[in-house]
Task: structure prediction
Amino acid sequence: MAPRNYFTPEEITLCAYAAMYEAADFGGESKITRLTNRSPASIRMKIQNIAAMLDHAGIRRERVVSPLTGLRHGQVGRTTNWETVEPLARLGRKTFLERCHGILATTRPTV
Result:
């Protein structure tokens, strides 16, 4: 069995911003895929899972991204990485975006 390719804290931060606001603010989802060469579909699913977690926790967000779908009635998305996402959700938009730009400025993309 292949080893799990866990999301990095940097990817989670960018995905959380994209779930709460708009990925275009920092250059779009393609900027996330370039960090570790993860597939666009995987990034999209992570963003939707985070959106579902935020909705379940009652945390306000812009409704640009639809939450993860395909779950049975009453079932919520997995709460993976909540310990990283929850503190980010408390940041102001400007501070959160500055953090995203900092990640993109200091992280070397994989090829």
